[in-house]
Every structure is written in C-alpha cells, then in structure tokens.
Specification:
Elements: H1 2-28, H2 30-64, H3 70-87, H4 91-101, H5 103-123
Helix pairs in contact: 1-2, 2-3, 2-4, 3-4, 3-5
Amino acid sequence: MMIFKLFLAFTLIPAAEIYVLIKIGGFIGALNTVLVIILTGILGAYLARLQGMYTLYKIQANLRRGILPTGELIDALIILAAGIALLTPGFLTDIAGLLLLVPRTRFYVKRWLKKKFDRWHNTQDVHFTHLS
C-alpha cells in the first residue's frame, strides 16, 4: 500500500501538473504561465507566513494559560504542508496549498487528521523504524 502511495505522490501528481501546465501555457502563453506560478508562490508564502504567525500566537497564548495546544499544533502541521505545496511549482499543488490555508477548509482536514491520529493511538498501529 505504501509503494502505491509513493507511486501516486512521485509519478501521477507531477504528470498531472505537467499536463495542466502545458494546457494552461497553450491558452495564456508560456511567459504568463510562469508569471502566474511565481505570483502564486509569493502570495502563498505570504499567506502561509501570516497563518503560521497567527497559529504560533495561539499556541503561545494557550501555553501561557496552561492549555495543551493540540489543535493549534495540528493547524501548524497543515500550514507547513500548505507552504510546501505552494512552493512546489504547479497549479494543482497551488490550489491544494491555498485551500489548506483557508481556516474553514483546514478545519475539515484537521478533523480528519484527529480521527486518523485517534485510530492510530487506539489500535497502536504506529511504528517507528530506526535506520542506521
């Protein structure tokens, strides 16, 4: 199952990105396509920084009150993933990254991740391997 997921991540996603880039490049031109990718990268990095700073502020506020900031830490993980997606050239990854920065969308992803973490914890199905 893991090999299939890696295949999807490293083969199909880049192939889909290339296809979309070629189609959009043929429609708006190569230079405009490159400019849009650069602009979405800059905008995405800025938005990820804003969301990250806000989440960091919430983490610090909760820690000062003695509250464990589990939800905020998951938000930070999702925002990190969004930043990585936005820095990856391509329209599909930019759309995914921007969606992850929207708090309402992030809420649903966070809820899904919490369920997954709870299932791993309850079934003790988490394994760490040390590679030497």
